[in-house]
């Protein structure tokens, strides 16, 4: 027996304001809503209010976890916040969340900046700090408000992304087997320009010049202050990287596809997930597709889908679940959890 | 051209399958969704993931098949 990190529970929060396909059709008169729905599988997206930041969404998700009574806030001794839309450049948003949640003074708090692979990365860090004896109760919060980066006249990303947050409690237990892991992680920075907000960091500060809006060949309008995604390139990247990632993870765990009870991939969009599922040959009954009411919420899609699958009884205690994240960076990561 | 591929590509380009030949132009309906669909069709039927940017520059069905053939022979070298 040894100390093992165990994923205990998840709660999520989606902002009250919604963006529906009908709203989008009213704004873009020449647009075929049915075609976009059939490709993306998304009907509704949560959109943060003007004063609502990633920390607010994260705090709301964490408060749901504490209210449910599964864990007391006093017990948390390590807070990880995964975001790409921090409240400020500094201080660390996790420190603001720590204060808002009223966590103990001797609780670590740090941000990690990662996107669609961020939840898997967060779990890898949680496992590390728990199994090395640094912490016993990790609160892993994911939260993003990509909508604040998105140009109102850029259909290519408005259709896809939604705002949201999740809070996961991971704790130390005595076990004779791993409950989180193994992990396979990977990186290809040559894809950096395919999914990027160019201005706002130190490489390119926000200026009048970066705010100049331009129209692309698909008639989408954006500036360098906005989110840009080359959907085709990102799609090609996932077709190349993800099937191998799944295979490597199975090999590392000594399992076959049949040894996995349920697969939760990053919920990018339904079309991409269907292509990946077909290519990897995962049966539909064991493959999660659940982004219709939220959109692509970046690092929150995996825990949101996982929470829903647990609540709806698609997965139960004792099940073996594979989590697969991939996207902006390019960055990818996969792990197996035993619930 | 693989028959199943011809049928699916015709669907993506919103034209009758029987009319689709290697000389069929891609100008109409060659939008981002059609390009993504074609990437996955080529992957499924010819086991190659081509570059979307290169695919976008193809002007006929024959050209996209040549692109797939080129990348396939490259990867098997």
Summarize the structure in words.
The complex is a heterodimer of chains A (339) and B (77). Helix content of chain A is 30%, strand content 25%. Chain A has 339 residues and is of the alpha+beta class. Chain A has 9 helices and 15 strands. Chain A folds into 2 domains: 2-176, Peroxisomal Thiolase, Chain A, domain 1 (3-Layer(aba) Sandwich), CATH 3.40.47.10; 181-338, Thiolase/Chalcone synthase (Peroxisomal Thiolase, Chain A, domain 1, 3-Layer(aba) Sandwich), CATH 3.40.47.10. Chain B has a domain at 49-77. Helix content of chain B is 58%, strand content 0%. The radius of gyration of chain B is 11 Å and the shape is globular. The mean pLDDT of chain B is 87. Classes of the chains: A alpha+beta (339), B mainly alpha (77).
Task: Please describe the structure with a list of short key phrases separated by commas or semicolons.
heterodimer; A: 339 residues; alpha+beta; Peroxisomal Thiolase, Chain A, domain 1; five-stranded mixed beta sheet; 9 helices; globular; B: 77 residues; 58% helix
């Amino acid at each position: 027996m040894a100390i093992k990190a165990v994923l205990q529970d998840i709660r999520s929060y989606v902002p009250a304001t919604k963006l529906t396909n009908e709203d989008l059709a009213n704004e873009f008169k020449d647009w075929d809503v049915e075609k976009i729905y059939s490709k993306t599988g998304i009907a509704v997206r949560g959109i943060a209010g003007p004063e609502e930041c990633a920390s607010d969404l994260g705090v709301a998700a964490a408060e749901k976890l504490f209210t449910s009574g599964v864990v007391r806030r006093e017990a948390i001794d390590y807070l990880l916040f995964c975001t790409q839309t921090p409240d400020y450049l500094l201080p660390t948003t996790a420190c603001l969340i720590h204060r808002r949640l009223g966590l103990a003074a001797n609780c670590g708090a740090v941000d990690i900046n990662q996107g669609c692979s961020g939840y898997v990365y967060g779990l890898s860090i949680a496992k590390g700090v728990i199994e090395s004896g640094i912490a016993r109760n990790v609160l892993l919060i994911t939260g993003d408000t990509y909508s604040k980066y998105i140009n109102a006249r850029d259909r290519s990303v408005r259709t896809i992304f939604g705002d949201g947050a999740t809070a996961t409690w991971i704790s130390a237990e005595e076990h004779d087997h791993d409950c989180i892991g193994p992990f396979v992680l990977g990186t290809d920075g040559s894809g950096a320009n395919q999914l990027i907000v160019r201005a706002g960091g130190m490489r390119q500060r926000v200026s009048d010049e970066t705010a100049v809006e331009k129209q692309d060949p698909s008639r989408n309008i954006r500036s360098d202050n906005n989110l840009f995604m080359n959907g085709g390139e990102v799609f090609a990247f996932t077709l190349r990287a993800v099937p191998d990632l799944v295979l490597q993870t199975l090999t590392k765990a000594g399992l076959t596809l049949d040894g996995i009870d349920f697969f939760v991939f990053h919920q990018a969009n339904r079309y991409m997930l269907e292509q990946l599922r077909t290519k990897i040959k995962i049966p539909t009954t064991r493959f999660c597709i659940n982004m219709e009411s939220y959109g692509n919420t970046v690092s929150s899609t995996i825990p949101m889908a996982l929470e829903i699958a647990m609540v709806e009884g698609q997965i139960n205690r004792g099940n073996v679940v594979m989590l697969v994240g991939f996207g902006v960076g390019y960055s990818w990561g996969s792990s197996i959890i035993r619930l | 051209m693989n028959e199943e591929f011809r049928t699916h590509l015709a669907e993506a380009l919103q034209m009758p399958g029987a009319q689709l030949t290697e000389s069929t132009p891609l100008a109409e309906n060659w939008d981002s969704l059609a390009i993504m669909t074609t990437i996955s069709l080529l992957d499924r039927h010819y086991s190659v993931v081509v570059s979307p940017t290169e695919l976008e520059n193809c002007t006929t069905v024959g050209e996209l098949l040549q692109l797939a053939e080129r990348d396939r022979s490259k990867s098997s070298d």
